[in-house]
Specification:
- The structure is a homodimer.
- Among the domains of chain A are: 203 residues, Aldehyde ferredoxin oxidoreductase, N-terminal domain (Aldehyde Ferredoxin Oxidoreductase,  A, domain 1); 154 residues, Aldehyde Ferredoxin Oxidoreductase Protein, subunit A, domain 2 (Orthogonal Bundle), CATH 1.10.569.
- Chain A is built from 23 helices and 17 strands.
- In chain A, the strands form four sheets. A six-stranded mixed β-sheet of chain A has the order 2-1-6-3-4-5. In chain A, strands 8-7-12-9-10-11 form a six-stranded mixed β-sheet. In chain A, strands 13-14-15 form a three-stranded antiparallel β-sheet.
- In chain A, strand 1 and strand 2 form a beta hairpin.
- At the A-B interface, helix 5, helix 14 and helix 15 of A face helix 5, helix 14 and helix 15 of B.
- Chains A, B: This is Aldehyde ferredoxin oxidoreductase.
- Chains A, B: It comes from Desulforhabdus amnigena.
- Chains A, B: Keywords: 4Fe-4S, Iron, Iron-sulfur, Metal-binding, Oxidoreductase.
């Protein structure tokens, strides 16, 4: 991980690769690296689909090691959806493989003058870039089958589907899982469109012949990793809840808490929730010969994913996440798990952010395009997006654009990015994160649901404004740091409750790099990243007024608790005053 | 003009009218009134289509008098297109009639819960509001025919077409001309969508039985008006150019100057310009039995409009303005005057901003939807907008949304509003206005073309950055003041060159109201309006970064002069530091 691969996609005759030492970005991984590079090298007022934007793909500090949970890949750029800085991260295999190939980052730069499509193959022998217009408009699953035929099955792929090629603001970037399926996505912020604007369809990685990255102090590293894994296994969330039911265990919990946004955020509880809960989902998966427990990358010990088969027992999609089941499910009044799984597959296949798509379809339902609960209609809309019909183009541009195009007032977005699966009136801590994160509305940017609802890392009443700013602030800082390690964010459940597990993670980094970082250093790193991201956004034209929820959250109470979002604007403005 | 008519469109059982004294808004007219009321009463972060937004319709200080040129109507609200404050003004009859009926403003407030459509009839006996769903989706021309049958031909109408009902961001508000045709539009910023969101299709005004507004000092007023008219008739632009050829006299002038944006702002000169010039247009109009000279409201002495008949001599549309001929013409590589006139008619009929639509179609051409120059294809797109097909919905949302939906980088907008007919690289003064006006890109907000190109009010080299900030600043201040008088902005040509004509206008206001205003008061008024508008925008989240042209204007030179926009960001930030 001592070099950066820069690919100038605007070079005459096609993209040109250049390797350079990691230089000023030494010691950075994941989100720290993507956000710093974007801040330093991308003009904040540039067009997100123009030559001046850069797509940065960076494994984390511990990716490619034997450390557990270290398979997250950060992808950053100026977002075409939000207009601000963006880091979206994904699981799957590429982070590990890219790190073992020695790259701290791949940076796609410039802009091609033709509309040719290229594939990039990277292995121990170097980088090969080839024009391949036969890949045009291939959805992700077909594309990966083609790559397997071409390069064998010892590969990991980073790719875009049809949505990315069409430069849709809801386009994701897919990463393949251990079974070489394009199921793990850097979903948010339309980064697939940036990759599409660079004319790059797929990056194929093969680390055959490369070694596992080795720590400075192998013994200490091994020891720390062991403690770390034990800590994860010992915590109720990471050791029991997530492995058994996956993230979708949250459906019943949030519905019970009255914070499950239903019918485009009109109410906080959904009649059909039990039909699409994690419990029902796990049962269905097991009964059909799928898997209720499965890791999205090698080295995962939480294994919160699964395999969802159709009624005939054939693979349909990976286990849809809670946010996906919510977005395409309760948010749209839909409670048919098979139809939701089909939409999850279509999102993965066309290369779309499941949250943005589900919320956008909810907005379309509010506009009267189809009725709430019409799952077949929703599936049809998904195909229109993937194929790029005019209506599909609208929906593929995300909820904010769809709301504008159809003249809808109830559009749940912050900084143009759709709100995820937690109503900010009934889970006010996550409301603070939605409003203030430099990423736009993003539950993963500071998951206050943990403390508001799951009572992890303390207990802050979800229905009241008190304490939410501090909670969100601390979680946003911690998250920015964790997103730089390559570690899955879910380790935070154990880290928040168990100081020894947090220490074990620190020990892993210290042993690997020969450092003596403390908790304060982690906090300082998180703060530095947020400061960098906010500086970019300020220069891109963001103000305190962009750190606000849509007004209906403060004016219209949500049932069953009949509360509005109560954190005042002046308090929101204190989140980054530390 | 001592009362305000407020209509609560959200009242139970349908819109409810309430008259109140003008109160705190006394002494204000036109833009001063609309912007002050919006600033004081509309929450800057509200949804533009929500209950909290207000549509303010205000004649100017001298509207309804015998004063020449006083027929402009200001309409204001928070704009669904820009997200900022908006004043768009239009000619036609309604300003005069509304003023004579005694109203300083009509304010549409609240939001209906049903989708019923209402018409409002106002005459000397008061206000009548009726539900009339038979008007749904009527285009403006059919609507006005219906109103004539119902209310006779002594009326003036303010209405929306199908675009406003569909709440499109490019929707205009139509005002009828002396022949009771819906040809004069408050075009910019999507105010038609705001009217549509209030469920009001048309406001029918009848001033039968009302008197001309009478001045405090009738003799002085008459005398001043006489001087004012003589001044207008004596100036080359207002006395000769505009009457003879209308605004489209500018096609040849701008093309010659290399500032005529062609093929979506790719070059500054258009091969086909002579085919669509004002000279050709006037000749065509005269030959077909139309009119090359015609006033858009009674009391106009410039008479820059006209009547454009089709090949068979039947009325097709009013004389398309220069900006319309450019937007649907050269900007799209189209040089068929009849097809351009047809699009002008369709804009008026469906109720759309011609500039926003032409620029949007140019962006769609850049996206490859149809070819540059394909005028029949462009007409088809216009119909799709008017009918609200999905593709039409995209285009009706304006250039910024269309650019986002189709992934186009070259999108000529500021604050999401399309740039008008002057390339800011070759006419740098107007570039300063585009960038900094609180309205978004708007040539009328500070028409530096006058001094850059026409050499009115001085001479500032259009190709250089020097002097442009001061020029735009002074013009923006003067314009804000003129927009408050109800006077047509075109009087500015004479005012800038002839101090005695400026004094005559001042004398008219003073004689009418018994005041002693000086030039300094006019400047102070203009500054106060701009300050109010900028304060609203700041609270809506606008920063200096929003006072910028799209980056391609500063990075890509435009032929034939091969210049880029040279006014620096720091200079732009000085426009409002007076």
């Amino acid at each position: 991980m001592d070099k950066i691969l820069r690919i100038d996609t605007g070079a005459q005759g096609g993209p040109r690769a250049k390797e350079e030492p990691v230089g000023a970005y030494a010691g950075m991984g994941g989100r720290a690296l993507t956000s710093t590079l974007v801040y330093k090298e991308v003009p904040p007022l540039c067009h997100a689909l123009g030559a001046e934007n850069k797509l940065v793909i960076a494994p984390g500090l511990l990716s490619g090691t034997t450390g557990a949970m270290s398979g997250r890949l950060s992808i950053g750029a100026k977002s075409p959806l939000t207009g601000g800085i963006k880091e979206a991260n994904a699981g799957g295999q590429p982070a590990q493989v890219l790190a073992r190939l020695g790259y701290a980052a791949i940076v796609l730069e410039g802009k091609p003058e033709t509309d040719d499509l290229y594939k990039i193959f990277i292995n121990k022998d170097g980088v090969k870039i080839e024009k391949d217009n036969s890949l045009k408009m291939l959805p992700n699953y077909d594309l990966i089958e083609r790559m397997k035929k071409e390069y064998g099955d010892q590969i990991a792929c980073i790719s875009i589907g049809t949505a990315g090629e069409m430069k849709m603001c809801a386009a994701s970037i897919a990463c393949t899982d251990p079974e070489l399926r394009p199921t793990r996505h850097a979903g948010r912020g339309g980064l697939g469109a940036v990759m599409g604007s660079k004319g790059i369809k797929v990056i194929v990685l093969d680390d055959t012949g490369m070694k596992m990255r080795s720590p400075k102090d192998p013994e200490k590293f091994k020891e720390a990793n062991k403690k770390f894994v034990a800590g994860l296994r010992g915590h109720a969330v990471t050791g029991q809840g997530l492995p058994a039911y996956g993230t979708n265990i949250l459906t019943n919990i949030l519905n019970e808490a009255g914070g499950y946004p239903t019918y485009n955020f009109k109410q906080g509880r959904f009649d059909g929730a039990h039909k699409i809960s994690g419990e029902t989902q796990a049962e269905t998966e097991t009964a059909r010969g799928g898997l209720a427990t499965h890791g999205c990358h090698r080295g995962c010990v939480i294994r919160c994913s699964g395999i969802y088969n159709d009624k005939d027992g054939h693979f349909l999609t990976k286990q849809p996440e809670y946010e996906t089941v919510w977005a395409h499910g309760g948010n749209c009044g839909i409670c048919d798990l098979d139809d939701i799984a089909m939409m999850d597959f279509l999102d993965d296949n066309y290369g779309l952010d499941t949250i943005e798509m589900g919320v956008t379809i909810g907005v379309a339902m509010d506009a009267g395009l189809i009725k709430f609960g019409d799952s077949k209609g929703a599936i049809d809309l998904m195909h229109q997006v993937g194929k790029g019909t005019p209506l599909g183009r609208i929906l593929g541009s995300g909820a904010a654009v769809a709301g504008k195009v159809f003249g809808v007032e109830r559009v749940p977005v912050v900084k143009n990015q759709a709100l995820p699966a937690y109503d900010p009136r009934a889970v006010q801590g996550i409301g603070v994160t939605y409003a203030t994160s430099p990423m736009g509305a993003d539950h993963t940017a500071g998951y206050a649901v943990a403390t508001n609802i799951l009572k992890v890392g303390g207990d802050v009443d979800p229905l009241k404004p008190e304490g939410q700013v501090e909670l969100s602030r601390n979680l946003q800082i911690a998250t920015a740091a964790i997103d730089s390690t390559g570690m899955c964010l879910f380790i935070a459940f154990a880290l928040l409750d168990q100081p020894e597990t947090f220490q074990a993670m620190l020990d892993m980094i210290n042993a690997f790099y020969g450092l003596n970082l403390t908790g304060d250093d982690v906090t300082a790193l998180g703060k530095q990243i947020l400061k960098t991201e906010r500086a970019f956004n300020t220069q891109a034209g963001f103000t305190a007024q962009h750190d606000r929820l849509p007004r209906f959250f403060t004016t219209q109470p949500v049932a069953p608790h009949n509360v509005t979002f109560g954190v005042k604007d002046e308090e929101l403005d204190q989140v980054f005053n530390w």
